[in-house]
Design a protein that fits this description.
Length: about 425
Amino acid sequence: MKSQQEAGKLPHPAHRLVTWYKQAHRQLPWRNTKDPYRILVSETMLQQTRVETVIPYYHAFLERFPDISSLAAAEEDEVLKQWQGLGYYSRARNLKKAAEVVVSQHGGVMPDTIESLLSLPGVGPYTAGAVASIAFDKPAPAVDGNVLRVIARFCGIVDPIDTLAAKRKVTEIVSQWGMEEQPSLFTQSIMELGATVCTPRSPKCDVCPLKEDCVAYLTGQTDVLPLKTPKKPRKIIRVIAFWLENEQGILLEKRPNHGLLAGMWQLPSVETDWKDGDQKNTGEVHETNLLVPDAELDSGSGSKLGPKLGSKLDAELDSQLVRLVTMPRGAEQVTTSRAAEEKLRSYVLVGEEKHIFTHIEWRVQVFRPVGINLSQVEFAPDREMMFVQRAEIRQYVLPRVYEKIIGSILGERVR
Ligand code: ADE
Ligand code: SF4
């Protein structure tokens, strides 16, 4: 095959890609612009998120933040609101920070060199290469998952695709190919091929402009390449959350300002490693009228709450609850004293939901304590908490899993 190319019969792959792209590409909103801000927004949204999902968010985001200075001037909460549902919220936080840097250090004009783009928060080699090539027509490699797959197949690269070795090889090849063509068209053409033709499963090799000399195609390895390092199983985290509601509302806490789902609001909760058997201790989710006063629940047989949960679980839940809230002395209730324990406080499982992140899985269970006077709770000093009225919950940015649980507990969609 190589000799065919050398003999000049087959145009350079970059040229074939661009020729194909010109007649086969999809019309996507970010393809009607050279505005580097818009390219940055679209490329940021498109990381880890599908094109169809991104399109409405892209329009709404640019409607609200039409230029980089409006994004820089916005409140972070409002940016997160616009992002809500796209996930991976650090992308949104970094995009806003990047806008601030562009305004404060570049006079509000997006920089056009790889080095200065790389210095913006959240902008890595891929995004820098995409903005530099697509918006500024600079010959810069932009290697995303699509590009890795296309090149690994075309060149028959057998290093697992998630390794540095594979990434280096692919970047080198893409840099060379990029010199052969107009950078903006080349970057988009190879991504587009990966998205629409050289797809992860069942690539459409019969319509591919690279099939004549594609190693994977010619050797029947399109469903083997690219190779991947086997994944470690996800760590399972048990999340014990509490439904603590009084006349002031439902108690919510703010997650820390860094790490997973930073700064979002949720039910007060404790995260623990999942141990075999944790599930067995709990009953099923049962219907409960959460507004029934505690006294009524206490005086009843308890049977209307469904199966009684084991006292071992109750004791565990008590010890977790005291990490979140305490009652002042004399107000009775959540203490570890024997007398209080003998009052047989119990917990009702009112909701549960799983949520899968990249490396971990959450198994969230929400418990409502029975027999606790919530009028005088004191919050743990290291947590930011407040009571929020049911009708106002939708004004807060909650992780999707909590929206789902709260919605099902309240019998409505929170959002
Ligand atoms: N995925 C990442 N960047 C893209 C782009 N510019 N167009 C389509 N899909 C993409
Ligand atoms: Fe991908 Fe098939 Fe084209 Fe090779 S021929 S680049 S495997 S679509």
